[in-house]
Inverse folding.
């Protein structure tokens, strides 16, 4: 499924694509530490609804963010078929709850288009850009905005 | 880190210890200790700082230390007598010296005016005349510079008995002598051919000595190591061992001399002095002593001379010699570890030793020679190591252990751990300890998980597996305790900064204060220690600024003009308690109450006990100082102290007696890594309440529970009403409160002594849990102190009991704990 990597293509990078509902998103593969199945999380009090709680990842306490809810898409009750992508954001490690991981994409930066104005503010906050892939639209997620405290309303 | 930088880092580490020694010495002097040994110790500390600074060319530091040291020398020699004024100036000087060290460490700058003021104060102690005699008086700069090169070397050799263990390294470093050369020496390729190092060494005055002992020399019981050590006393040496003449083992003759040395000697020794060293062996060795530069020729000459003779190295105890040789690298190891503060660096030396140790089956006569070879080799090694680490000095430490054979065994044993006084210690990177602690934390969790699995599998309690698990649990706990003990440190490291603070604050507000410290050796986890400093600082400032009266007011009230502030640490109930007590005026309750009312912190008609009024000062936005002074009351009041202590899982309270003084008591957990907790369930969640907060648990009867207003419930426990907090509701897990009679109430005590009852569904048990930060990957959540991982592998939240109580108090404040009449 990968394109052949050509030597010297400086801005090429690999992305992990995943689905939430019928939309496709992706993040840089370098920020993904592992992908694991959903396990029930311990809910945290007084947190926004997109924070599903915390899980134990080999001794570390990892917050789980329901990315769909975060983006203002539908919220789903997680099942065993859901997937947690463990990602690094700065010096933190968090889990992103998504529907499924779909693809590994090899592409170059110049194919990324800015997010068009039609998108809602909430989506624009988290989407760095878009690109087309085999007729599908994939949105590039800005991971550093996903954690709640970067928002003013964070409690 | 390059070797020079790492030595510099070691120097600053040593400095810290030296400054501590100095300050405690000065404080002892202040308290009336005029033992010459105390003064000597202070002098040595300052001297060592200066010496070390010389090696690194830290001129400002040297200059100040020089003046300071000279005054101390006056004191030491009895020309200056120890009075209260003198100690006060000396203490202030010690603060300035600490500033200088700090500045040198951070490449920062020092307060020049303060330094100059201090220098003239110091000079003032001896009077202008004597000051001129001593060579300061405006010229202190020259004095300092001229001094730093050589004096430290001489002194450290002349006074070997004075070498207090902490001073050793600095002294060694100090004796590096001409500082600019240090780097060159450190980097010089020791093993390289003479010509190379010659080229690198540049134009520094140096002797090149080629020393090739003949067999007769050993026969006359002379020892090459002793000669080399003697030579090292004359200045910096760089020793190269030439072992190329050593034949393969099967051709080795035990009695022959094969080794030769090339020594590069720096310093201002004369040729006669150098020759003197070889006085006793001159006839039995090939010796050439030439000025650097002529050396190359001499080398060639020396090469021509073939020193193969009959040896009579009479080591009558070959086994011992081998042992000594084997022991020596360990000592070298220890030395290097101390010098570098970094034990792995010594590994190469250690690694070489086994290779050199001869095979045990070697025939008896032959074993003597390899042994002496080892000893000699080790000297070279020791020299090499010390040169490599820019310790081009009398390799004073390693040598005594390698110098002779039979005795060296006995000697080697003693110096390994330094001289008898302090227990042997090692410096370990904190990261490594933390990694170990984390791993043990995982072990505890894993052990709990395993226990739970076994329990669930329905095995009998008396089964072998269950019994084995019990042992494992005990063992795990023991490991955990031991590991935590590694990180435990006496609070001394925090306390020792306080005398200075007290002096400065007292000076600033014009009060006389005596600080009494108790329990400095109370141990607590390093993570806690680091965070003790701020609250203690704040409380001390507060005690001096607000607590103590001005001297004239004190005297008017029949108290001594000098106020006493007591800082104490003690262990109590698995926690560390820090008390800050003053003998000042105590809390003015009327005023506190008035302020609290005017700021709207309490209701006009609130009925408060004395204790409750005292504890009002912890409320946010409360500051009693009418005048906002520079010391305390910057708008950040005791509420900040309280919050920072709470963040550590601690509590703080105050008790006060008008006219007699007040006492702040703060208690903190001994560690921030583990916690004894009670596992409870509320709203289908498993939660952990810190056991230290829990007083008792009980099943509430519905007739004991009363509602105040709409939803705020109180419960009567014996004769006291305390608020009843439904944990599920307080944390927002549930909207409707649990019917009290269907749950369990856990009576807890919060930091101010305030009580509350937490209503939960059930108590699952008591367990030691490993604290996991929520902030590391997420953020702080009100009401939750941290998280932990339970036996089933799931995350459970640890309740922040104080926050829960506070948030409930805010709703129903201030009517917390009103006693029933009668």
């Amino acid at each position: 499924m990968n394109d052949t990597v050509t030597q010297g293509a400086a801005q090429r990078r690999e992305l992990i694509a995943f689905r939430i509902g019928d939309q496709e998103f992706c993040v840089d593969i370098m920020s993904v530490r592992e992908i694991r199945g959903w396990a029930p999380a311990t809910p945290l009090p007084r947190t926004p609804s997109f924070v599903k709680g915390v899980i134990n990842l080999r001794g570390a306490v990892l917050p789980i963010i329901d990315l769909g809810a975060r983006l203002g898409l539908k919220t789903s009750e997680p099942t065993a078929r859901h997937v947690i992508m463990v990602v690094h954001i700065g010096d933190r490690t968090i889990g992103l709850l998504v529907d499924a991981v779909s693809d590994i994409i090899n592409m170059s930066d110049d194919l990324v288009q800015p997010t068009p104005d039609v998108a809602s503010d909430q989506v624009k906050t988290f989407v760095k850009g878009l690109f087309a892939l085999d007729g599908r639209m994939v949105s590039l997620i800005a991971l550093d905005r996903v954690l709640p405290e970067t928002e003013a309303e964070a409690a | 880190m390059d070797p020079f930088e790492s030595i510099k880092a070691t120097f600053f580490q040593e400095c810290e210890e030296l400054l501590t020694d100095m300050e405690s010495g000065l404080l002892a002097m202040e308290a009336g200790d005029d033992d010459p040994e105390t003064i000597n110790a202070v002098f040595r500390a300052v001297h060592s700082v200066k010496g070390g600074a010389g090696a690194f060319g830290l001129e400002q530091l040297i200059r100040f230390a020089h003046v300071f040291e000279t005054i101390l020398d006056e004191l030491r020699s009895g020309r200056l007598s120890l009075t209260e004024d003198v100690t006060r100036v000396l203490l202030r000087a010690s603060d300035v010296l600490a500033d200088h060290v700090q500045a040198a460490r951070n490449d920062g700058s020092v307060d020049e005016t303060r330094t100059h003021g201090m220098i003239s104060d110091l000079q003032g102690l001896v009077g202008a005349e004597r000051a001129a005699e001593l060579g300061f008086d405006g010229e202190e700069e020259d004095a300092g510079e001229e001094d730093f090169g050589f004096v430290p070397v001489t002194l450290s050799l002349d006074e070997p008995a004075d070498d207090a263990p902490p001073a050793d390294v600095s002294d060694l470093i100090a004796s590096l002598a001409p500082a600019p050369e240090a780097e060159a020496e450190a980097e010089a390729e020791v093993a390289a051919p003479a010509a190379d190092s010659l080229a690198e060494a540049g134009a520094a005055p140096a002797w090149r000595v080629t020393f090739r002992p003949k067999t007769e020399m050993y026969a006359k019981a002379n020892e090459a190591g002793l000669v080399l050590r003697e030579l090292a006393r004359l200045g910096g040496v760089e020793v190269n061992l030439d072992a190329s003449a050593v034949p393969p083992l099967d051709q080795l003759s035990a009695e022959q001399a094969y080794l030769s040395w090339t020594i590069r000697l720096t310093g201002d020794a004369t040729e006669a002095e150098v020759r003197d060293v070889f006085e006793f062996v001159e006839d039995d060795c090939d010796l050439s002593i030439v000025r650097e530069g002529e050396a190359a020729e001499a080398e060639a000459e020396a090469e021509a001379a073939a020193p193969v003779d009959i040896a009579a190295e009479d080591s009558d105890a070959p086994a011992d010699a081998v042992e000594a040789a084997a022991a020596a690298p360990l000592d070298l190891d220890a030395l290097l570890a101390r010098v570098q503060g970094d034990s792995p660096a010594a590994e190469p030396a250690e690694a070489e030793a086994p290779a050199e140790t001869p095979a045990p089956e070697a025939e008896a006569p032959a074993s003597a020679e390899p042994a002496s070879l080892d000893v000699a080799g080790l000297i070279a090694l020791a020299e090499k190591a010390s040169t490599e680490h820019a310790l081009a000095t009398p390799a004073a430490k390693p040598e005594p252990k390698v110098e002779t054979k039979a005795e060296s065994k006995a000697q080697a044993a003693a110096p390994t751990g330094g001289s008898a006084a302090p227990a042997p210690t090692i410096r370990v990177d904190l990261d490594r300890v933390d990694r170990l602690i984390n791993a043990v934390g995982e072990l505890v969790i894993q052990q709990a998980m395993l226990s739970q699995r076994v329990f669930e599998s329905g095995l009998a309690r008396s089964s072998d597996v269950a019994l084995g698990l019990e042992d494992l649990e005990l063992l795990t706990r023991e490991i955990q305790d031991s590991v935590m003990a590694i990180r435990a440190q006496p609070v001394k490291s925090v306390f020792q900064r306080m005398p200075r603070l007290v002096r400065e604050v007292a000076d600033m507000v014009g009060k006389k204060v005596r600080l009494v410290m108790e329990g400095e050796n109370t141990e607590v986890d390093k993570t806690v220690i680091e965070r003790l400093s701020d609250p203690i600082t704040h409380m001390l400032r507060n005690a001096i600024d607000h607590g103590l009266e001005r001297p004239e007011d004190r005297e008017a009230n029949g108290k001594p003009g000098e106020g006493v502030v007591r800082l104490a640490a003690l262990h109590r109930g698995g926690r560390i308690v820090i008390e800050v007590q003053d003998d000042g005026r105590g809390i003015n309750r009327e005023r506190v109450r008035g302020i609290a009312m005017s700021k709207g912190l309490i209701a006009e008609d609130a009925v408060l006990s004395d204790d409750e009024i005292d504890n009002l000062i912890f409320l946010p936005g409360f500051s009693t100082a009418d005048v906002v002074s520079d010391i305390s009351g910057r708008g950040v009041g005791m509420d900040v102290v309280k919050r920072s202590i709470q963040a550590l899982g601690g509590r703080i309270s105050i008790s006060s007696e008008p006219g007699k003084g007040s006492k702040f008591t703060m208690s903190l957990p001994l560690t921030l890594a583990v916690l004894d907790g009670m596992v409870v369930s509320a709203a289908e969640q498993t939660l952990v309440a810190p056991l230290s907060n829990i007083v008792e648990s009980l099943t509430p009867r519905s007739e004991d529970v009363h509602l105040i207003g709409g939803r705020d419930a109180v419960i009567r426990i014996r004769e006291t009403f305390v608020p009843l907090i439904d944990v599920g509701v307080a944390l927002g897990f549930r909207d409707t409160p649990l019917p009290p009679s269907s749950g369990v109430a856990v009576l807890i005590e919060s930091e101010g002594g305030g009580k509350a009852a937490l209503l939960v569904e059930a108590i699952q048990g008591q367990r030691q849990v490993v604290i996991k930060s929520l902030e590391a990957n997420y953020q702080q959540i009100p009401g939750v102190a941290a998280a932990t991982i339970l036996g089933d592998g799931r995350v459970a939240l640890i309740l922040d009991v104080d926050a829960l109580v506070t948030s409930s108090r805010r709703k129903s404040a201030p009517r917390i704990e009103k006693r029933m009449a009668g």
